[in-house]
Amino acid sequence: MSSSAEDNANSKIYSQEALFELTAQNPDRYYLSIHENVYDVTEFLDEHPGGEEALKEYQIKDKGFKDATESFEDVGHSMDARDMMKKYQVGVLADKKEQKKVTSDHDRTQSQSEGLNFSFLVVPALLLAAVGIAYQLFVNRA
After folding, report:
1. Which of its termini does the chain have fewer beta carbons within 10 Å around, N or C?
2. What does pTM read for this prediction?
3. d(CA 23, CA 96)
4. Would residue 141 count as lying in a domain?
């Protein structure tokens, strides 16, 4: 990609509403946000080493989309991968504060629900383990 083409992609600024409109008008495209940049990764789905589902999880399609920055950084992408991203960048987010707020609210709700699911499973597992131990002690004494 030439430098002027990269500059054009970097200069396209999307408000939240414009981004949601773009995704609604192009339902067959896969857009995601990393470091407040907008990427169209449709052509990269089949090539992604982590599989297409890793990218589709962060698809921008409604107001509750999840920013992919944290997952992107957690994986530890190489400099080559970071350089490759440039050709898929189609713009930047204008409403950075709003985007972070939407993501934070979504993450908080998701982590609360995951936490409830986890503790819901832990209590029965502990009770089952206690009953198993008590049974073994009873059988060994008899």
Report:
1. C
2. 0.59
3. 18
4. no
pLDDT tens digits, 85-109? 999 999 998 865 454 555 555 555 5
Q: How many angstroms separate the Cα of 86 from the Cα of each of 2, 51, 54, 82?
A: 10, 19, 19, 7
**Contact yes or no for 58/33 (Cβ under 8 A):** yes
Q: Which two tokens stand for residue 125?
A: 């597992």
29 — pLDDT class (breaks 50, 70, 90): very high
Are 16 and 95 in contact by the 8 Å Cβ rule? The answer is: yes
Q: Which domain holds residue 81?
A: 3-114
CATH of the domain at 86: 3.10.120.10
Angle at 74 between CA 62 and CA 55, to 5 degrees: 35
